[in-house]
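Box 3.1. Reading complex inputs
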Amino acid sequence: MTFDKTILITGGAGFIGSHVVRRFVHQYPNYKIVNLDNLTYAGNLENIKDIELYPNYAFERADITDLEQIYALFEQHKFDGVIHLAAESHVDRSISDPLIFIKTNVLGTATLLDAARRFWKDDYEGKLFYHVSTDEVYGSLGDEGLFLETTPYDPRSPYSASKASSDHLVRAYHHTYKLPVVLSNCSNNYGPYQFPEKLLPLFINNIRNNKALPVYGEGINVRDWLYVEDHAGAIDSIFHKGKLGETYNIGGHNEWRNIDLIKELCRQMDEKLGREAGSSEQLITFVKDRAGHDMRYAIDATKVQEELGWKPSLQFKEGLSKTIDWYLSNQEWLDNVTSGAYQKYYEKQYAVTA
Ligand code: NAD
Ligand code: TYD
């Protein structure tokens, strides 16, 4: 079979990557999609089982920090484009184990950039390196204001500092070697296949099992939530229509204080599980705050909306309801990913913060 383009997607066995891979495999039968992932605790081939037999899909198990391995894959597949999502992504883990974040997020991104530069050898016609990043690089907001693409970087956790470093490297390769790049910085995602260490899937799983809901600090931190398929749609638009060298902020215009979000989650879960109203809220337990906990993130997504015509498609309460339904009807997935090493992580993380 011949394809118009071969696209490397890194981290496609993780949460957001699996949605991006699925979308591209379905929407673009003329592209060959190569999903590269080394299947850390957060990567799971179950997340993309539905597309593994598609003729335009291939999986490669590889480590983005291994230049030899990555370069060999460029030679083998002759990638025209890269959509780079592979990363260590959980802030709490970056606090307890920062160095793996520096290795994967900084060295891994540099390795991919260098493989692309060497393989494309200045012939950049039809080539693109798309780097997927986070709004956390901008730091923390007070009560007012939104993150713009021009907001100065002020990362404050090892996770956000490692992502900020990777963003700088992408821009440096563009400036120095003219590598064709585009970047996006997105707010908090939620939806199916998110590893249950992050707030929403963790709390859905705990409510299901009648376990405590560990709310950090007073629960007054604010996040801007976006349904993961909307993020995948934005990535599609930016990959195809974004201007070279540009950055696009992506967000849901959907700010929630953690405690309000958790109460809405409890309300919906009580209804869906047929429990008495108010019963899940009783599981809320305030625990020691996260070290250096950023107070508020909120994105101004005007640029991507005005220039590329992207906007979120789903209302939050509807997205939350869909998300809860997915986890409740995929309990086997939840049970699989929360067995083994996850138990140790949970005991360690929540023994420290409780
Ligand atoms: P995730 O942790 O669910 O998945 C990360 C994937 O990367 C996993 O499949 C893992 O196996 C893979 N990976 C890790 N190290 C690797 C290595 N050395 N080599 C190859 N593969 C490796 O993460 P996610 O939440 O899907 O986030 C994906 C990207 O989006 C990240 O770059 C993250 O910074 C960014 N992002 C996430 C959010 C969010 O809310 N989750 C928001 C904005 C941006
Ligand atoms: P998280 O899902 O880890 O995303 P991020 O830190 O990247 O925004 O956390 C979302 C918010 O929920 C954040 O303010 C921290 C808070 N939180 C808790 O209160 N308890 C928890 O157990 C977790 C995992 C997060």
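In summary: The radius of gyration is 20 Å.
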